[in-house]
UniProtKB/TrEMBL annotation:
A lipid is attached at residue 20 (S-diacylglycerol cysteine). It holds the Pfam family Lipoprotein_9. PROSITE patterns: PROKAR_LIPOPROTEIN. GO terms for cellular component: membrane. Its main location: membrane. The lineage of its organism: Bacteria, Bacillati, Bacillota, Bacilli, Lactobacillales. It comes from Alkalibacterium olivapovliticus. This is Lipoprotein.
Length: 275
């Protein structure tokens, strides 16, 4: 049988400002990020976009206006935020942001955790992780941190050995032992689902699996343990705006029972709320 992840334990986050009901929010905001009357949020296409549109609809009931700007890559959402085209974005893990900040010098800050998107080993060819054969081609993401994350997943699945104590900084060249002589190739993360027909298996973030219309339960051979996962996604803003009232209001709308229920029903464990 394929390994299917079990019941996922959500983490309770401390109380946040309640933005739904009671007070008017967006209409009362006159300074800061809402001085133009609209909070502009950048997202990547797929689950982040779907969730923010639900948040947008919920906030609109209180006249809190959110504009959702959708990107198809991982570069522009941070560049646009740094350049002031966005008020914040929602698409990336904290670890990914740290890497981008270090490399680019962008003055961006994590504001609040949102969801966790587990990575899985997926295959159209095999039904069990133990079926992977010697010499198989294995696809993994080529983006910063995600290559190492995928390799750690294959290590946890017992297929390779990596240096003791290593983390997501590892690359294919760091593999210590590869008993099946697996041929690891790197590719754009979003392209990996389309490449499943050409490889034995691939390490893919579940959001890309969902985008491709693939059932993660049907094709997943091995999944990250969400309870131990540090790859949490965040709302991110420019550091100068990290205490802006509008961000607290957005968090209040995001981290509601309504949005949590939407995530759980819509994505069926492929995404996990962080609260």
């Amino acid at each position: 049988m394929k390994r299917i992840w079990g019941l996922l334990t959500t983490v309770a986050i401390g109380a946040v400002l309640t933005g739904c009901g009671g007070e008017e929010t967006g209409s009362a905001q006159t300074e800061g990020l809402l001085s133009d009357g609209v909070l502009t949020v950048g997202v990547t296409a797929g689950p982040h976009e779907d969730i923010l549109n639900e948040v947008k609809n919920l906030a609109a009931e209180d006249n809190f206006e959110i504009e959702v700007i959708t990107f198809t890559d991982f570069v522009r959402p941070n560049t646009a935020l740094e350049e002031g085209e966005l008020d914040l974005n929602s698409f990336q893990t904290g670890i990914y942001l740290d890497t981008i900040v270090e490399e680019s010098g962008f003055d961006l800050t994590k504001i609040e955790p949102t969801i966790t998107i587990p990575m899985g080993i997926y295959s159209e060819k095999y039904n069990d992780i133990s079926d992977i054969e010697e010499g198989d081609v294995i696809g993994i993401p080529n983006s910063p941190t995600q290559e190492g994350r995928a390799l750690q997943l294959f290590k946890e699945a017992g297929l390779i050995t990596l240096p003791e104590g290593s983390g997501i900084e590892v690359t294919v060249s760091d593999i210590v032992d590869n008993p099946l002589n697996l041929d690891f190739i790197t590719s754009e993360a979003a392209q990996l689902p389309a490449q499943l027909q050409d490889v034995g298996a691939a390490g893919i973030n579940s959001n890309f699996i969902l985008d491709a219309g693939i059932n993660p339960e049907e094709y997943g051979l091995f999944m990250e343990d969400v309870e131990d996962l540090v790859q949490v996604n965040y709302l991110v803003s420019r550091t100068e705006n990290e205490d802006d009232e509008a961000l607290e209001q957005l968090i209040g709308y995001y981290k509601t029972p309504e949005i949590k229920e939407f995530i759980e029903e819509q994505f069926k464990g492929a995404l996990v709320p962080s609260w």
